[in-house]
Design brief:
With about 650 residues, this protein is an alpha/beta fold. It has three domains: about 1-275, Rossmann fold; about 285-430, Rossmann fold (3-Layer(aba) Sandwich); about 465-640, Aminopeptidase, CATH 3.40.630.30. About 40% of the residues lie in helices and about 20% in strands. Helix 3 packs across helix 4 (about 95-105) and helix 8 runs parallel beside helix 9. It starts with a strand and ends with a strand.
């Protein structure tokens, strides 16, 4: 941590600036780490012990030590990922960090790197070891000197060079992806060059520093077009400082552009994108109250005694954290409260304090009681109908944090610093809520959960289920896959785990291909009721096989279950299949760790069993000559473009 000083009331006092993020400061430090490493069990429990060690604060040395123990551990049934790293400089120091970042997520990563300086040959030769490796994800780590050079160019020469580099890099991306659906990541160029013109560097477009900025901007635009993800090292360096990431001495000695000290953070940044693409990013920020959202204890200090608001440094720090949380909600992160408090006391600041940024309407699940927080976090996950591994728990109390880490290791628990002005910084640095795109449904998620609370309240009051459902005035608006719906459909397919019959994942490119394939069909479903437009909540994808339509994916948001949407969806799909000349629907169920709730989905809808495999996979069929009962409480409407 960097130390700086401020003058307060004539006294010079130290203040902290920065938290040393490259050593993963949001993770807890473990003073017994080396003891636990030496005491790793053999056989049963070893993988879990390795994962636990990876979930503590790591520097480069610990990362390499843990990677060596990981290499000595036989592979079992843990999730696996094949990751290729293609570098133009020395990247050996990054590879252990990528594997350990995977370990932190419970994933074993197998890595491939070509010989030094051979990344072009590896990508462009179809017979190379890179293509034989068949990676699930490919990362380009290209250094600034290779792409830009160190010589000042005339403006026109600089523009031409950037055009050539953009075309070359785009061709490398395409060659690396080939005809597969593998993920392609590209590291932004590091701002390593000293400025020649100072603050007006942009007025010298041919300077190496200006060309780095220009090329990064152009590659970001190209990445958006090609579905490539950028590891934003330039933005990370703006936070950490270039010295944390780059050492001229290491470059001249070993051609290492990225310092080994920054390798743990590099691995984190890469794996966060994989998490986001695979639907593994966290969904909900669960907040403690006392000394987390405000200073003091509401039950003891009262409304006037808590620190929140302008004119007080501590109060402004808590306001800033609330503002950050509210901004997360605006981009689609669910907010919840988990507090040991009397509920009336806990609610009072939200309802009565003028300086509260967050209000009760911003909180999707509010739990304040005297039960243990592990129990309450389980309740919150159940109430929101999301996996408990989707929660991030922010609490100022180290005792509570450690209990949750022990009792619920699948819950992310950031190590909050003593200074509340750093709360937002530490949670942002942890990358729990990494995203690759924002949809309209994301922006509306907070309002949708508010509408869901109102709907549940009405449900509690209702005594007649059919009458209650009819009172919701529900419409299921359906449409075929198109350019507007594809981003949300892809996101839903990659994030939905519970109501997902096959848990097949798709890239945007694959969804585009399905939309243009005459032998395939894809439908997106939007639910609208008297409380809200819930956005796209369901997707059905199928392929024509002889006289049948084979449903390779059927997934829905769990927040609309219990309304008869499944039956209405089946009626729609059956009509579409009949229109295409099919006489049968075929549906598959592939069991996963999270989709047990839909095990009986097809038999409940009247399908008959075709076959069942030893691993629990089942196939079902439905005779389309038989009538299908439509839920009268839901009106079917076809989406009209424009």
């Amino acid at each position: 941590m960097t130390r700086c000083y401020a003058v307060r009331k004539g006294e010079v006092v130290p203040i902290s600036v920065g938290l040393g993020m490259i050593d993963l400061a949001w993770l807890p430090d473990d003073s017994e780490w080396r003891v636990r490493l030496r005491a790793l069990p053999e056989g049963s429990g070893r993988w879990e012990a390795l994962v636990a060690l990876a979930r503590t604060r790591m520097d480069f040395t610990r990362t390499n030590q843990l990677d060596r123990r990981l290499a000595e551990t036989p592979s079992a049934d843990e999730p696996k990922l094949k990751f290729a790293i293609l570098g133009s400089s020395t990247i050996d120091q990054l590879v252990p960090a990528i594997r350990v970042s995977g370990l932190r997520r419970g994933i074993r990563i197998e890595t491939y790197t070509p010989e030094y300086g051979q990344f072009r040959q590896a990508v462009l030769d179809p017979a190379s070891a890179f293509h034989a490796f068949a990676a699930d994800a490919v990362l380009f780590s290209l250094d600034a000197r290779t792409l830009v050079g160190e010589v000042v160019l005339e403006d026109a020469e600089a523009a031409a060079l950037i055009d050539r580099r953009v075309a070359e890099v785009g061709a490398w991306w395409d060659a690396a992806r080939g005809s597969s659906d593998r993920l392609v990541l590209h590291q932004a160029l590091l701002p390593i060059f000293p400025r020649l013109l100072g603050n007006a560097e942009q007025r010298l477009p041919g300077s190496p520093a200006a060309m780095v900025r220009a090329l990064n901007a152009r590659l970001r635009d190209l990445a958006d077009q090609k579905g490539v993800d950028i590891i934003a090292l330039d933005e990370q360096i703006a936070v950490d400082g270039i010295d944390a990431w780059y050492s001229p001495a290491l470059w001249h000695r070993a051609k290492q552009e990225i310092s080994p000290a920054a390798a743990p953070m590099f691995g984190e940044l890469a794996l966060r994108i994989i998490d986001a693409r695979k639907g593994r990013a966290s969904k909900c920020l669960v907040l403690d109250l006392d000394n987390t959202l405000w200073g003091g204890v509401i039950g003891d200090d009262g409304l006037e005694g808590i620190a929140i608001g302008q004119g007080n440094a501590e109060g402004e720090a808590f306001m800033a954290f609330q503002t950050y949380a509210k901004s997360l909600a605006a981009r689609g992160i669910i907010l919840a409260v988990c507090s040991k408090n009397d509920e009336a006391n806990a609610l009072e600041p939200f309802e009565k304090h003028a300086d509260m940024v967050l209000r009760r309407s911003d909180i999707a699940a509010f739990v304040a009681n005297w039960d243990d927080k592990a129990t309450n976090l389980r309740r919150i996950a159940a109430d929101l109908n999301i996996g408990i591994d989707s929660l991030v728990f922010a609490d100022d109390n180290p005792f509570e944090r450690n209990i949750i880490r022990r009792e619920l290791p699948m819950v992310a628990v950031p190590e909050l610093p003593d200074d509340p002005s750093r709360y937002a910084e530490i949670i942002a640095a942890a990358g729990y809520f990494e995203g690759v795109a924002i949809t309209a449904e994301d922006r509306a998620r907070g309002r949708l959960y508010q509408a869901e609370r109102e709907r549940r309240a009405l449900e509690v009051e209702a005594t007649d289920l059919a009458g209650y459902l009819a009172s919701l005035d529900m419409s299921l608006v359906w449409g075929r896959l198109d350019a507007v719906s594809i981003p949300r459909v892809t996101q839903l397919a990659n994030k939905t785990n519970q109501f997902n019959l096959t848990t097949r994942r798709y890239t945007e490119g694959e969804i585009h291909s399905l939309a243009n394939d005459p032998e395939s069909f894809g439908l997106h479903l939007r639910l609208v009721d008297r409380f809200a437009d819930h956005g796209i909540i369901g997707v059905v994808i199928g392929r024509r096989v002889d006289d049948a339509f084979d449903l390779e994916s059927w997934l829905m948001s769990c927040r609309v279950l219990g309304r008869g949407v499944e039956e209405t969806t089946l009626a729609l799909v059956a009509d579409e299949a009949r229109r295409a000349g099919a006489s049968r629907l075929i549906g598959s169920y592939i069991p996963s760790a999270k989709n047990g709730m839909v095990r009986e989905h097809y038999p409940r809808l009247g399908f008959t069993l075709i076959d069942e495999a030893a691993d629990g996979q089942t196939r079902w069929q439905l005779d389309l000559t038989q009538p299908i009962v439509v839920n009268p409480a839901i009106t079917l409407k076809e989406h009209q473009n424009g």
